[in-house]
Design goal:
The protein has 18 helices and 14 strands. The protein has 440 residues and is of the alpha/beta class. The protein has a 6-stranded mixed β-sheet with strand order 9-10-11-12-14-13. Helix 2 crosses helix 12.
Length: 440
Amino acid sequence: MYERLEKAVQLVENHSRARVISHYDADGIAAAGIVCRALLRKAKFFHTTLRRSFDQELFERLKEENNDFVIMCDMGSGQIDKMEMLEKDVLVLDHHAPLRDSDSVVQINPHLFNMDGATQGSASTVCFLLALALDESNWDLCGYAFAGAISDRQHDPAFSGLNEVLLEGAVKRGLIKVEKQLALRGDTIGDGLEKTIFPFFKGISGRKKPISKMLKKLGMEPSTTLKELDGGTKRNLTSYLSIQLMKQGVRPETVETLTEDRYWIESMDLYASDLGSYMNACGRSGNLGTGLAFCLGDKDAAEEAEKLRERYLSGIMEGLVKLEKDGVFEKDHLQFFYTENSSLAGTWAGVGMQYMFNQEKPTIALSVQEKKTSISGRGTRYLVGKGLDLADAFKIAAEALDGSGGGHAVASGASIPKGKEDKFLEMVDSRVGEQLTPQE
């Protein structure tokens, strides 16, 4: 990897300007933010675009633009043929499963160095690694890297691989403080139970009255802050919530994440998970410029991101409560639901997979639009351990239907022509069935 990083640094040094492309989720925004700040500190010009996917329209646009140097963040490894066809200097900083390595494109991806890009290195931590190779003073950008990795759930159950190495360096330098806490967001117990997405408690999350009733039963007040809980009270609450999750059929390894490590960014007075939710809110709401400006330190963007985050989290919770009520449709080897909101589909599928529905089948969300259908799929590491590979299933099914798909074994996306949803589900169901069937 060091040799590859040296090539990447040389590319940056050899060009005065870079065309930066990145994904629109929190990991992609963080990745772009890190790269852009590192370029700024090198007095390099840049033009950045955040996108949902790398499609033919973007490919044609990049070919036509007068740019000698393109940096792809959080995408590119699955489109390496197109990267080569750009006939420019291209640097790919990705963590999705690569089609292959390349002689002409400089590609830095955990998968190419015996690491799992789904769990051990995100786009933002790969980009942070490049920033450090460019200049050691870029350690101050570590908060964005961990925020991106957390938003991709790579801290669950703990950081490992590249993420762990970088975390150790940040902690050693006093930049990050690790705290063991109950996995609730917000200042008070009531606020935490009402707004926390991971974990989700059926019949409780997002609902004030059931929360008050539950806490009264435990002798607690919703207004009590999490920091005010003494050891015994905190243990009682944790035990009660753990039992609640087990009653929902949540897997033991997921129940264990009710208590988690949280990562405090000293320079920002903010937890990395909260930083990630600001960026997610900007990306998922379509305020991409605000998200990037926030990463670049713009104070007005930070204020706007805070407002967007409140609306974003509220929208997620409303959708989850509705999903809990409506349920999903089931096929032999998968479960699925339809939603009009494609930007939140993956989050809803992920929470539903872990906390609501059948733990033996991956969960798929479909969003039918004017000409195409966007699809998000989520599994669990338990299912991946049994053979699930959603990236493989989505890629095969989508491409057979004149669409595109891919991602990670545990979480993938696809885009197919409108009207081919049933065929896609049929093909993925069959492929997943083959994956999860024990081999003789």
